[in-house]
Amino acid sequence: MKAFLAAVIAAIALGVLAMFALTSNQKFAYQAFATSGARVSEPGTNLVGPRWNGDPKPDEYNGEPHGKAEGEASHPKRS
Amino acid sequence: MRRATTFLSTLLLAVMLLAVPGALSPAQAQNPIQADGQNPIQADGQNPMGARPTADSVNEEFLFKQESKIRGRVSIPDGKSANLIQPQGREYQNFRERWLPWIGALTILGMLAALGAFFLFRGRIMMEHSQESGKKILRFNAFERFTHWMTAVCFIILSLSGLNYIFGKRLLMPLIGPEAFGAIAQWAKYSHVYLAWPFMLGVAFMFVLWIRDNIPNKVDWAWIKAGGGFIGKGHPHAARFNAGQKGVFWMVAGFGAAMGVTGLMMLFPFALTDINGMQVMQVIHSVIGIIFIAGILAHIYIGTLGMEGAYDAMGSGKVDLAWARAHHDLWVEQEQARTASGPQLKGHPAPAE
User: Fold this and answer.
1) Where is the stretch described as Disordered (chain A) (predicted)?
2) Tens of pLDDT along B195-251?
3) Which residues of chain A does B141 touch, with a Cβ-Cβ cutoff of 8 Å?
């Protein structure tokens, strides 16, 4: 009986261990198979501007830190 | 009268002039004849004149002549999503939905029916008492029993959760409803994926522990010819494991390895095989799994209900010496010679059945 109980406990323990091992490297499908997002402008800006009027001015962003991304700006693609 | 005849003749001519080209035009549209009398539809079915616009259009048959799959182009990193049609998937689905449930049901129910018939015909194989009855001999030590039960517990849960993949939506869902079935199936899937690991470890342990005593030899052939004791009188000789038990050992080792490899192929999709390979793995996994379950049912039967005294080997680890002498005489002699001082043999009375 002791061997049986030890076997059940060991099976559960190994199963839990396997669960953590397997899920530690898992990604959601939207992460695993997503594209890198298309960047259409410099970090911290968007196409419509902070006033959402579709006519952004470069100096408008100075007072609008919301959503300002950090890091270096990407190099514009030349085509 | 003459004017009427002239009118009718003119009307008939007009009708003929209108009707005849109209009647011939469908045939010309189907198979137009050029001015030089040549049929523009070529022998290969292509029609350069475009008289049948769909003749040149891309169709499924044409695409399958180019490649085994029909695929398009995608811009996302997962290029596999470009596959539109994979013909083997239809064969796999046909097997999975039509053949597999029948194979599973007939094999497992057939084994249960055979065991039931055997029990009715032969009854329980009772212990043959002798002067050695009541003395115990250690058959499996604690680690052997631990390994056996860890593998066995996992196998039972893997079997039930595996059968749920095949029969759950057909048998269980109509009984308990889709919500309860969904929850059970999800936990069954978790248990199948995670308990596969201790099962594989247990099979590996058993292989190392018992391979030394499971190498086939001449004694096994004599045991098989004697039908394990059913043919002729007396028990055939057997060492620690008889030919039937060796068969179970090699079945567990072989099927366990096959189930592990095919299961890992599905657990890590596209790691080593493509979608065709994984479908083949699933077919092998399911068919071997069903045969495995049927084989283990026979093993469970003979180890519990089928033979008195057999369960003690994996229960307490100690079996009645008279039972051991009857079924594994060569092993008893070997053990007694090895432990001549007698630490294996104790005079405890046999527990009541």
Assistant:
1) 40-79
2) 999 999 999 999 999 999 999 999 999 999 988 888 777 789 999 999 999 999 999
3) none
Helices of type H across chain B: 2-30, 60-66, 87-94, 100-122, 142-167, 173-176, 178-210, 218-225, 243-267, 275-303, 312-315, 321-327, 329-338
Under DSSP, the state recorded for A41 is: S
Number of folded domains that form chain A:
2
Residue B2 lies in a domain: no
Chain A contact residues (CB < 8 Å to B): 1-4, 6-8, 10-11, 14-19, 22, 32-35
Whether residues B146 and A10 touch (CB distance < 8 A) is answered with: yes
pLDDT (0 to 100) of residue A55:
74
pTM: 0.72
Q: Give domain status of residue A46, yes or no.
A: yes
* Last residue within a domain, chosen from B170, B201, B232: B201
Contact B76 A15 (CB under 8 A): no
| β-bridge mates for residue B83, sequence order | B71
Q: For residue B9, give both structure tokens.
A: 């003749």
Question: Is there a domain that residue A50 lies in?
Answer: yes
Range of the structural domain that residue B146 is part of: 141-201
Q: State the nearest Cα–Cα gap between A63 and chain B, in angstroms.
A: 36
Q: What is the pLDDT along chain A (79 residues), one digit of tens a residue?
A: 899 999 999 999 999 999 999 988 787 776 776 666 555 555 556 667 677 777 767 676 666 555 455 555 555 555 4
What are the chain A neighbours of B198 within 8 Å (beta carbons)?
Answer: 10-11, 14-15, 18
Facing residue for B77 by CB, picked from A1, A22, A35: A35
CB contact under 8 Å between A17 and B148, yes or no, is no
Q: Chains A, B: CB contacts under 8 A, how many?
A: 59
Q: Residue B244 and residue B322: Cα distance in Å, rounded?
A: 20
Q: Closest-CA residue in chain B for A14?
A: B198
Helix (H, G, I), strand (E, B) or coil at B117: helix
Instruction: List, for residues B12-70, the tens digit of each pLDDT value.
Output: 666 666 555 545 444 444 444 454 555 555 555 555 555 666 767 777 777 777 777 77
Q: Write down the pLDDT at residue B232.
A: 72
Same domain as A40, residue A29: no
> Of B185, B114, B200, whose CA–CA distance to B155 is shortest?
B200
